[in-house]
């Protein structure tokens, strides 16, 4: 295969390195809105570099999009129009109208689009989903999700991130849907600011919590922060009438028990998402190769991304208006 990659930032460079390591991939060609950055990444990785304008004429079998969010819609549509299967990191677009516009534009095409929600490819989350589907947990009563970043991103990133629920919590919202097999009907969300002023300036919060009511009455809670000094902490508790499981409780979880006689976890804590989900990212991109080759349909399409975005949007409305919000209020 000959694969293209648009966007050579941190995650783009990591994805390019992963792609070139697959036996099925013969060549990788990268591009970026900043040509110098693309050339630098290409030299480091030993791959080709072209301009964004040249990318779609480079004989690609598939395209991986890791560019800035505002470039996602155009690149997805251009790839689909060119008949090139495309993998795009979340989100599809910066907002719901933009996401709907992309879905409407590509809806009649049979060119596959895969959106990057890497937790679906993590072994722990997959095992939790299997446990739910098998019935071994009984009926679910509670899911508890956490995404705790050890330190905030730069102010410039926060200003264009869409906010904590859309940027960070959307992963939890997607995985709650995926693991439980249920849809969210209503949310109630709150947030606070005790950190940097730039969160307030952006109309955002640095810490938040949301309660989700699923369509069968199951309750889910999602907790998020940009200031977890102990380390990167992403977990999901799935609790049922018969049994329960937890995702993310391993030797590197940044947790310290104060119960007498309980040994500390060996650590060290994960410093960030790239380290925590390195294997999941590899599995996700390998799945994309199956999509490109026509061996499998997209495992996470734009419609899935839209559903998670609806939940994030409802949480943001709830936080601002301090009231419960039904998903029906934000659907379009």
UniProtKB/TrEMBL annotation:
InterPro entries: Gfo/Idh/MocA-like_OxRdtase_N (IPR000683), GFO_IDH_MocA-like_dom (IPR055170), NAD(P)-bd_dom_sf (IPR036291). Gene3D superfamilies: Dihydrodipicolinate Reductase, domain 2, NAD(P)-binding Rossmann-like Domain. It holds the Pfam family GFO_IDH_MocA_C3. Keywords: Oxidoreductase. GO terms for molecular function: nucleotide binding; oxidoreductase activity. It comes from the Bacteria. Belongs to the Gfo/Idh/MocA family. This is Myo-inositol 2-dehydrogenase / D-chiro-inositol 1-dehydrogenase. It comes from Amycolatopsis tolypomycina.
